């Protein structure tokens, strides 16, 4: 029986980051970002994304970075056969000290959106761990295509994410040991990718594909 995978990309990105995966025997659907309502909660937003999912059939969710957080929120509202997050976190506790500091001080709120986007593009190659000119060009295009309003909303949700304690999710967590964004090296219940950075969904796609294929057959 063919299984249905739903991919959720990172902050403002799109399905381009998943094109390097080779997953066997599945139907693949890419969840599209929609415009958030003003002051909309992440839980409410995630519920609206469920409209893109056929819940009458088995659901596999794969989320990258912010998409991994959203995948977890969706999984609190529907039955999910497999939940896989890549270059992401399972709770606020798993944030590094730098993100916790930014979250507590609310420093991100005083920076205009165009500066956030510009600085993101300026430092992206370093923080995402790109390994070639082609990867740099792809990442630059993704950042260019990111909606500024969505970016500001999503950053606020990341910085204020408090996962519910009442629901324990069964998560397969794939993380790079050289991730400079979610950089906590003391994560538990993680499958580590040696040398993997935040953009490893692209440059470590073969290793990640192998892990996902094994997970789906287990």
Question: What do you see in this structure?
Answer:
Helix 1 (42-49) crosses helix 2 (66-75) and helix 4 packs antiparallel against helix 5 (133-144). This protein has a single domain (3-217), classed as Alpha/Beta hydrolase fold, catalytic domain (Rossmann fold), CATH 3.40.50.1820. It has a six-stranded parallel beta sheet with strand order 2-1-3-4-5-6, sandwiched between helices. The longest helix has 16 residues, at 113-128. The chain contains eight helices and six strands. The protein has 218 residues and is of the alpha/beta class.
Count helical runs: 8
**What's the N-to-C terminus distance?**
15 Å
Shape: globular
Which CATH class applies here?
Answer: Alpha Beta
**Number of E-type strands:** 6
SSE arrangement, N to C: EEHEHEHHHHEEHH
Strands ordered across the widest β-sheet: 2-1-3-4-5-6
Q: Which percent range fits the helix content?
A: 25-40%
Summarize the structure.
The protein is α/β, with parallel strands linked by helices and 218 residues long. It contains 8 helices and 6 strands; from the N terminus they run ββαβαβααααββαα.
List key phrases describing it:
218 residues, alpha/beta, Rossmann fold, 6-stranded parallel beta sheet
Protein topology:
Blueprint: E1 3-8, E2 26-30, H1 42-49, E3 59-64, H2 66-75, E4 82-86, H3 97-105, H4 113-128, H5 133-144, H6 148-159, E5 172-176, E6 191-193, H7 200-203, H8 205-217
Parallel strand pairs: 1-2, 1-3, 3-4, 4-5, 5-6
């Amino acid at each position: 029986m063919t299984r249905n995978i739903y991919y959720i990309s990172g902050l403002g990105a799109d399905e381009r980051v998943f094109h390097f995966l080779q997953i066997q025997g599945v139907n693949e659907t890419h969840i599209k970002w929609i415009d958030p309502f003003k002051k909309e909660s992440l839980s409410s937003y995630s519920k609206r994304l469920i409209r893109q999912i056929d819940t009458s059939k088995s659901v596999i969710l794969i989320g990258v970075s912010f998409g991994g957080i959203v995948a977890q929120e969706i999984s609190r509202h529907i039955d999910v056969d497999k939940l896989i997050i890549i270059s992401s976190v399972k709770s606020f506790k798993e944030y590094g000290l730098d993100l916790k500091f930014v979250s507590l001080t609310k420093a991100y709120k005083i920076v205009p959106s165009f500066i956030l986007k510009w600085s993101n593009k300026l430092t992206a190659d370093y923080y995402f761990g790109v390994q070639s000119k082609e990867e740099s060009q792809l990442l630059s295009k993704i950042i260019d295509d990111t909606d500024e309003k969505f970016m500001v909303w999503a950053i606020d949700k990341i910085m204020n994410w408090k996962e519910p304690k009442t629901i324990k999710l069964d998560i397969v967590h794939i993380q790079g040991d050289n991730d400079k964004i979610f950089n906590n090296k003391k994560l538990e219940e993680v499958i580590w990718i040696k040398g993997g950075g935040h953009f490893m969904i692209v440059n470590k796609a073969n290793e990640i594909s192998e892990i996902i294929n094994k997970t789906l057959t287990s």
